[in-house]
Specification:
Elements (H helix, E strand, L loop, with lengths): L4 H5 L14 E2 L10 H13 L9 H21 L6 E4 L2 H15 L5 E5 L8 H4 L7 E5 L10 H5 L6 E7 L11 H10 L3 E5 L11 H4 L3 E5 L9 E5 L1 H6 L12 H4 L7 H6 L1 H14 L8 H25 L5 E2 L11 E5 L4 H9 L3 E2 L1 E3 L4 H6 L8 E5 L6 H14 L2
Helix pairs in contact: 2-12, 3-12, 12-13, 13-16
Length: 407
Amino acid sequence: MPLDPARIRAAFPAFAEPSLKGQAFFENAGGSYTALQVLTRLEGFYRRTKVQPYGVYPASIEAGEAMDLAYERIAAALNVTPDWIHFGPSTSANTYVLGNAFAGWLKPGDAIVVTNQDHEANTGAWRRLAARGIEVREWRVDGESGRLNLAGLDALLDGKVRLVAAPHCSNIAGEINPVAEITRRAHAVGAVTAIDGVSYAPHGLPDLMALGADIYFFSAYKVYGPHQGIMAIQPSLAAELPNQGHYFNDDKPRYRLTPAGPDHAQIAACAGVADYLEFVAEVAGDAVTGQTPFRRAHAAMRTQEQALAEPLFDYLRKRNDIRVIGPLDPSLRAPTVALALSEPGVEVAGRLAAHGIMASGGHFYAYRLLEGVGIDPAHGVLRVSFTHYTSPGEIDRLIAALDAELE
């Protein structure tokens, strides 16, 4: 493994928190622990600059500079320019606003493609456009594996399609979708892509220039940061979309698609996400390669997680009585693992808690996906999810707890 668990975990105060001692955290897909680099920036903003930013006095100027730095740092981590970046209160709120913006951009008779693999945030907001005369086409998963096959997308694409909305990876199936290829095929028919990166981003922020996506969004609180939603939008597309903010802010790109007024301190604190990723690259050293610290951090996190996942998947491969949604090869997926069991997932999660395993059960807002693979959303799945900061010992504890509770 390229990352020393002790050094990585030292960057997260939660691992030194007495009330969490003995608890192994396996609900990271719902929200990660917060990195010290983020907490330091957040506290500093609240202590020194909790004023209206972008004013004329020193504290206000400093506040604006701290926020501008976050735009610059997140952009660098994604390999885009700062004018791509928009902060909003959450990903669900951001996609809701985008849906309204596209309602004014699309024309009756236009078509869009959505999937039934997505979290509802990246499908429901688009499906509502049917009420505006937009044709909604569904790219459906395979009923056994939960996989999105590119042939299914090809069958839906033609000159009427203006938007393809899809996940980078599912929060249930976990498989990493070929976003660059999805985008290439969408662009070939004149469509743009909106990619939900919420379930992928905790495992390494991607190079958006390599992916080619027109819109990419994720949740900072799942990427070791505060509770914010971050959208990267191709600037020329953002300029075409109708203004969703106050009319007098129409000439201010940061205001047009985020009308809710996100928390200034949390925006500033998001610069700490980039700080943390640079720290990860430093810990990895020469164990991985990449042109920038952010690409090296991405490589290190993915390599670490695949090594951590292998013992768990070895165990699951031997359990013919457990249905794993998505591939059993850690190299093909994020370490977000949904298990379909005879009992409701939340009941098993409750028993795992007695072993010090923090996990959960339910449908996780992937209601349509569960229906697509033949699982009653009310029954749900047991979901265990981890990241690069999980220790090998915690994986062993999880396996032992599953073995004890799933006999």
